[in-house]
Specification:
alpha+beta; 5-stranded mixed β-sheet; 4 helices; 49% helix; flat
């Protein structure tokens, strides 16, 4: 087990230099987003003024607004994609290995949907399932696996005009853990958070087998 002094030394000698480089990159990305965002929203504002001044249909007002949002979303995605990947590989990867050499980190993988269902903690059907930042391996004699997970189901309704409306509802969003305690028992044990009896939802779930 690593001590607090070990963690401090690891941070100072290993992580801090790379964190400084990444923070400089982050600031450059923020400046680029501002250089794109400010002119974009000035143009959007002028378009809205022209539309309102000419008393055009109200639906037209939303066109430049959503175009501005789309431009910023695309810019954000392309400017931050590599930064996030580099942060995970250079920082999170090393933190996981520092905690225990037997642990493996996979940034784009997650606990599988079948494993999530096998916990039997959440019984609702799943219409959308995703996650990332999988950590797996063995700590001592215990096999562990955990990752970010977001499981959802959807509902569809129609209004009085017949327009269909789709809503997504979160079943679970957070870190989901699986641990094999290497104990042979008969039957099944389901471990739930204190609030699960009322909500059957929460930030942390676990299953033992």
């Amino acid at each position: 087990m690593k001590s607090l002094n070990d963690l401090r030394e690891f941070y100072l000698k290993t992580l801090r230099p790379d964190l400084k480089i990444l923070d400089d990159r982050r600031k450059k990305i923020v400046r680029k987003l501002l250089l794109i965002g400010v002119p974009t929203f000035i143009v959007v504002g002028l378009c809205l003024l022209v539309i309102l001044a000419n008393e055009l249909e109200i639906n037209v007002v939303f066109v430049p607004f959503f175009l501005g949002i789309a431009v910023m979303a695309i810019a954000y995605h392309f400017l931050t994609k590599k930064f996030i990947a580099d942060f995970k590989s250079s920082i999170i990867q090393r933190i996981v290995r520092f905690v225990d050499e037997n642990l493996r980190y996979l940034s784009s993988a997650c606990v599988s949907e079948s494993e999530f269902k096998a916990s039997r903690i959440f019984r609702h059907r799943i219409d959308r399932y995703r996650g990332d930042d999988l950590v797996q391996g063995r700590i001592g004699k215990t096999d562990v696996k955990f990752s970010e997970v977001h499981a959802e189901y959807k509902t569809e309704t129609r209004d009085s005009k017949g327009n269909r409306r789709t809503q997504w509802h979160t079943i679970f969003k957070g870190l989901f853990y699986i641990a094999d305690f290497n104990k042979h028992i008969r039957g099944e044990i389901v471990i739930l958070p204190d609030t699960a009896e009322r909500l059957f939802d929460g930030w942390v779930g676990s299953c033992s087998r």
